[in-house]
Design brief:
single chain, Cytochrome Bc1 Complex, Chain D, domain 2, 12 helices, 2 strands, globular
Length: 276
């Protein structure tokens, strides 16, 4: 399996920009769709100062201090233009940069680890197609963040490899598509917990189909409306981190939103007042 994946990755690398061939327009389009679904532009664009999309500079408030997001345009000096396909894959799957430093947990690489080789190749094709932007002078992480990076390196060494998402043969294609999107670019478990029953520390609600404490009384249309417009069945609108997620899911196709809704409505219900 590992040899087959490696061979496939090397073959894909030959098709990527920088390998002597033009990018496949279809790959770029697929990568753009995935980047939108993951909200890459939202994290890696300094909208407050009218920064170039994907050029980084948005300052995130983290437990390790305020840290600007990196430039992921194909600028070779300050972006990812010099990265190989293997380096890009390692960053997404393991959170390890080409210089062997480790990204902070705010970069959700454990969820991107589940992406297929083909989707990672498409993402790189899209990012390589962007206009390069020089983004010099971004403030690096402070000592607290550097200490956390060191701890991240230890955790990576102690953690078994995150598997690429494997479809459930007992489920249909729509369910598997929803499960894949929720597990990877949607990263639902990042906020809502491993069993999707919510996380009190993040003020993230229970999104299992428990009728009393989750979304068990929501119709499919209720879930679709939230994913597209951010509106809940009680005519409220989500805020905070979920508002950013909705900006991502609103860019999905109707079929993909329906697949996510079907998946969420099928998981095991768990009684949990996570936000109470």
């Amino acid at each position: 399996m590992m040899l087959r994946s490696l061979g496939f990755g090397l073959a894909l690398a030959l098709l990527l920009p920088g390998a002597g061939r033009a990018a496949d327009p279809d790959a770029v389009a697929r990568g753009a769709y995935l980047a939108a679904a993951a909200g890459c532009d939202q994290c890696h664009t300094d909208k407050e100062h009218k920064g170039q999309p994907y050029a980084g500079g948005r300052v995130l408030k983290t437990p390790y201090g305020a840290i600007p997001t990196p430039n992921i345009t194909p600028d070779k000096g300050t972006g990812i233009g010099a990265w190989s396909y293997a380096e890009f894959t390692r960053a997404l799957r393991w959170g390890i940069a080409p210089d062997d430093t480790h990204y902070l947990p705010e970069f959700p690489f454990p969820y991107y680890a589940g992406l297929s080789d083909a989707d990672i190749a498409d993402l790189k094709a899209f990012l390589d197609s962007l206009p390069p932007a020089t983004q010099a002078g971004l403030q690096g992480p402070d000592s607290m963040a550097l200490a956390e990076r060191a701890w991240a390196a230890v955790k990576v060494a102690l953690t078994p490899p995150q598997p690429v998402f494997e479809p459930d043969p007992a489920k249909d294609a729509a369910w598997n598509r929803g499960a894949y999107l929720a597990a990877t670019v949607g990263r639902c478990r990042d906020c809502h917990g491993a069993n999707l029953a919510g996380d009190k520390s993040r003020k993230a609600p229970n999104i299992t189909p428990d009728p009393a404490t989750g979304i068990g009384k929501w119709s499919e249309d209720d879930v679709l409306t939230l994913l597209k417009e951010g509106q809940t069945p009680d005519v409220d609108f989500v805020g905070g981190a979920m508002a950013e997620i909705v900006r991502n899911t609103s860019r999905l196709t109707d079929a993909d939103r329906k697949a996510i809704a079907g998946y969420l409505r099928s998981v095991a219900p768990v009684a949990s007042h996570a936000t109470k």
